[in-house]
Amino acid sequence: MPELLRLVDDGVEATIDPSAGGRITSLRFGDHEVVGGSGDPDEDPSTAGGIFAMVPWAGRWRGHRAHGLGRDRVWRVDGSDLVLDIVDGPLPGSARLRYRVGPRALHIGLEWQPAATGAPAVLGLHPWLRREVSGSAAVVELPAEFMLERGDDHLPTGRRVPVPPGPWDDCFRLRSAPVVRWPGVLALQLEADTPWWVVYTERESAICLEPQTAPPDALDRADADVDLHRRSIRLSLHAGETSAVG
């Protein structure tokens, strides 16, 4: 099995496990660990914690396992990247995952090359962030245009609705980058090159803000403004003092 990888720069340290879906198992900004988990010992470990890639589909897709096929596989180390070939399932292809750290920032890039020319995909990144950091409870700032209504099957109906009070397990279209603040301790601004985010705040131990190239179940149900042929997604987490980010 590949050894753990560690990336260190000014004020940030990330630990990556290629054998556990290529996920980040620890992310520290200064003295503060921000990676969390669901807190449910019965949940599949491949979905219950860390920061991991969702490929070749993200979130829920009717009739298929949630969060794609890359989350519990061994990714091979290729230079400073991680690579995974997916030859089974409905959407075979090859994924490339890049983690980079800079001064108080983590940068993630996920790329996908389908085996079949023109095949669709939905890519995503799934960070679990601690509900509490150094005694401070997280506050989520979500600059949403709208939320997609969630049906009884937990899949979007396609109807756009105003944002209700949380907790959420829902897909949003955002106007700008969301921010997670732990008042008096730390703030994280999450910048992605997609407006679609799934936000999960139903657990007491951690929260998830997941950028996706399209909403859940978009491979079966997609609006005209959804691109199912995007081949990459980017996410950056920028840390700052609570008064300096956002």
Describe this structure in words.
The chain is mainly β and 246 residues long. The protein has a single domain, classed as Beta-galactosidase, Chain A, domain 5, CATH 2.70.98.10. It contains no helices and 21 strands. The strands form 4 sheets. It has an 8-stranded antiparallel sheet with strand order 6-7-8-9-21-18-17-13, with no helix packed on it. It has a 7-stranded antiparallel sheet with strand order 5-10-20-19-16-14-15, with no helix packed on it. A 4-stranded antiparallel sheet has the order 1-2-3-4, with no helix packed on it. The N and C termini lie far apart (40 Å). The model has no long low-confidence stretch (mean pLDDT 95).
CATH class group? Mainly Beta
Q: How does the overall form come out from the CA principal axes?
A: globular
Helix tally equals 0
Q: Outline the low-pLDDT stretches.
A: none
Number of strands: 21
Main β-sheet, spatial strand arrangement: 6-7-8-9-21-18-17-13
CATH topology: Beta-galactosidase, Chain A, domain 5
| Rg value | 17 Å
* Helix proportion range: under 10%
Termini gap: 40 Å
* Strand coverage percent: over 45%
The total domain count is: 1
Please write the string of helix (H) and strand (E) elements.
EEEEEEEEEEEEEEEEEEEEE
Main beta-sheet annotation? 8 strands, antiparallel
CATH architecture: Distorted Sandwich
GO biological process, one term: carbohydrate metabolic process
Protein name: Aldose 1-epimerase
Organism: Aeromicrobium piscarium
GO molecular function: carbohydrate binding; catalytic activity
